[in-house]
Design goal:
Structural class: mainly alpha
CATH architecture: Up-down Bundle
CATH topology: Four Helix Bundle (Hemerythrin (Met), subunit A)
Order of helices and strands: HHHHHH
Length: 163
């Protein structure tokens, strides 16, 4: 299996096809803005919405690098990537979910159009293949956090179909 095929499989599994853990598309399914803004009392954790925005930021940065666009604006620090709207702003939350789907599809499409040898190019200091892999691992990590938050708030199904 080539690097490209390995990454393409990873992109599918992280976002759409459940394998070892639920994909982020399932983790975001049927969430309201209020649920996306929920934070466990007394716990120092980001909300679901903050995590989703954080993931979007780094995916958009990768797309900008791969396509050699100058649209990427670096945050002052990592904390600046965790932002959210209000619990009553359902339209903004649904737009965030939609944007998440669009950006993920753009990553998938971008990866499909890259030639195998291009994956080894540095951009700026890491090979493109490693940046895709980092995005996949990053998504898996934060998807686990999102699911844990849903479990704590009671919005994650207690029984899911066996795979």
């Amino acid at each position: 299996m080539s690097k490209k095929e390995l990454l393409q499989n990873g992109v599918n599994q992280v976002f759409y096809d459940e394998e070892w853990y639920p994909p982020i598309s399932d983790a975001l399914k049927n969430l309201t803005a209020a649920q996306a803004c929920w934070q466990a009392e007394g716990m120092a954790s980001n909300t679901i919405w903050e995590n989703v925005h954080h993931l979007l930021f780094f995916k958009e940065r990768l797309l900008s690098r791969v396509h050699k666009e100058n649209s990427y604006v670096a945050p002052l620090n990592n904390d600046d990537t965790f932002v959210q709207g209000g619990p009553n702003d359902e339209d903004a939350w649904q737009q965030t979910v939609k944007r998440t789907l669009q950006v993920h599809d753009a990553l998938q499409s971008s990866l499909s159009s890259i030639q195998e040898e291009e994956l080894d190019q540095l951009s700026p200091s890491l090979p493109i293949w490693q940046q895709y892999l980092n995005i996949l691992l990053h998504d898996a990590y934060h998807t686990g956090q999102i699911i844990q938050l849903r479990k704590l708030q009671g919005s994650w199904p207690s029984n899911r179909p066996n795979l």
